[in-house]
Amino acid sequence: MGASPAGPTYAASGVDRAGVSRSLSELLRAVRYRPPPRHGRVVPLPGHYAGLIRIGRETIAVTTDTVGTKVLLAEEAGRWEEVGEDVVGANVNDLAAVGARPAGLVDTILCVRPDPATFGAIGRGIDRGLRAAGCALLGGESAVVPSIVKGIDLGGTAIGFFPRGRAPVTGDRIRPRDVLLGIRSAGLHANGFTLVRKLLSEAAIDLRSPRAGATIPLAQELLAPTRIYTRAVDALASRTETHGLAHLTGGGVRNLMRLHDGVGFVLDRWPEPPAIFDYMQRLGGVSDEEMYQTFNMGIGFVLVVAPDHLAETRRRLARAGAPDAVPIGRVERGEGVTLPSLGLSYHGYA
Amino acid sequence: MGASPAGPTYAASGVDRAGVSRSLSELLRAVRYRPPPRHGRVVPLPGHYAGLIRIGRETIAVTTDTVGTKVLLAEEAGRWEEVGEDVVGANVNDLAAVGARPAGLVDTILCVRPDPATFGAIGRGIDRGLRAAGCALLGGESAVVPSIVKGIDLGGTAIGFFPRGRAPVTGDRIRPRDVLLGIRSAGLHANGFTLVRKLLSEAAIDLRSPRAGATIPLAQELLAPTRIYTRAVDALASRTETHGLAHLTGGGVRNLMRLHDGVGFVLDRWPEPPAIFDYMQRLGGVSDEEMYQTFNMGIGFVLVVAPDHLAETRRRLARAGAPDAVPIGRVERGEGVTLPSLGLSYHGYA
Hints:
The structure is a homodimer. Chain A is built from ten helices and 13 strands. By secondary structure, chain A is α+β, with helices and mostly antiparallel strands. In chain A, α3 (81-96) packs parallel to α4 (116-133). The first copy, chain A, starts with 16 loop residues before the first helix and ends with a strand. The model of chain A is unreliable at 1-5 (pLDDT under 50).
């Protein structure tokens, strides 16, 4: 990963991405087995947002993700609905990134002790997320494991499918001159919280008060649940002019490289990030480079669209609940992701 | 839950089942949303082993489970392959309990720090499990979260399907006079380890030595991976004489009640449990009642079969890798699970 020359980085805050990457390679190297076709046909899509498998006449997409260290902020604030909603959002947005419509979710809660009020709040958040995504709860696992976890861990797995006539959107149709349309995020979503917590603790910030310029307590602002892009994407994913779909999670703008590694993504119209990002950046003197590869910086989802369909796509997005989709850049020959106005350039996703 | 009159119980060892049950009810009460049919049709099967959803012309089954506190034993012994295999086994056996054939698995590893050797060993175990089940790895999530976990947590989610002509086996066809066929377990599998660890630590047992009568170190004996019943069940699940399928996990023989609550399961031919169970029981003076509702006691999977198909079913199981399936009891009018020879009787699964 490209560490910033100065200031705190995500790696230094406790997340050893290179170590994870090395360890994951070891795991994947060991898993050599490929089942016979009568058990389903895997659609190879390494490094993408979802696993795809053909079962009979359907293609099923599977995503799995946890809320990560955002739960620690939930615990401090005693607010659990937001992270409940994040379990759904983190997973269904990854489904959206291959153009899949969510069908079902299973959740996993690991805890030190089961508390009915906490579980109830998590349930209300999950319910809100499912409503936004049009997704069913298919089951879950709750384990009381005080010897394994310190507080609560919250994760889930979502399965999705492709309505008749829709093929998975993998990004392979992306080509130079395509337009990048960005849809706003609702805040930090559920990424970068290891760094957030480090910055807050070093500056001894009181989470119960609003930051300067805000009206709600900082904890509440930071906990704002992941915006769910399902309905917006569902309105576009069957259309051939939709060439690529990216959910900006951990890794920030680097996520675009998961769609196609033979083109350059030029972000020359990135909108002013919301004030919360500026606040976090100033708190610890974090570099621009680190900010844009850790947080969503105000854009949670990107559509890569054929240039002659830009206006039409924006109209469709507006009707599907995303009137705030704006052009943020374009595809060029080359490789990597660049933000010319900040002099930033990223190469490689992991 | 029915606590035993004396001796250690699973609840006392740290797992507050009633608390989990109350908390889960709160969560489920809050999740009220039911999606429209164009997002898939959920097949209601509350309390069963898997969630089922109809997507287009396929029915997809989803299970999610963790290895639980068995990972702590893996850590002590420095052996990770077995629990890697358990991630697969715990999930695909739950798929087998509704008659679904596994298609894909996603794993979740939460850790304090990523270690390539550990991840490699987990991967080798996952590979072995996938081979035994005929299942593909579809993806996974690895999170380095030292602020959430103490060691490693290992879990997964599996999706399965029903080959042409096969309906889910839910247990609704179970009726009095059906025969219960039990297939041997490979040891403790991945359940009851919170109690196991308590018993071992109170008796200050050295895990590196074999127990009396055994030839391998106790740690290795306890870590023996979950037997995978996929191929055996796959040979029977399409047949109408197969009335019910039960994976004996946490809850032991109580699991049978998940299949049908309007009949009694009489276990009057339960085979002598392997010595490891007797060893654990004596170590802490655990009651029979607690043993049979916490461990698999030597039988990891049960098939409920029409009585006139017993011999034929055993032949089919033998050809599918389970020559050791034996009659362990029968279905009667009534309710609950009884073990007459031990004077045990259980009412209710949770």
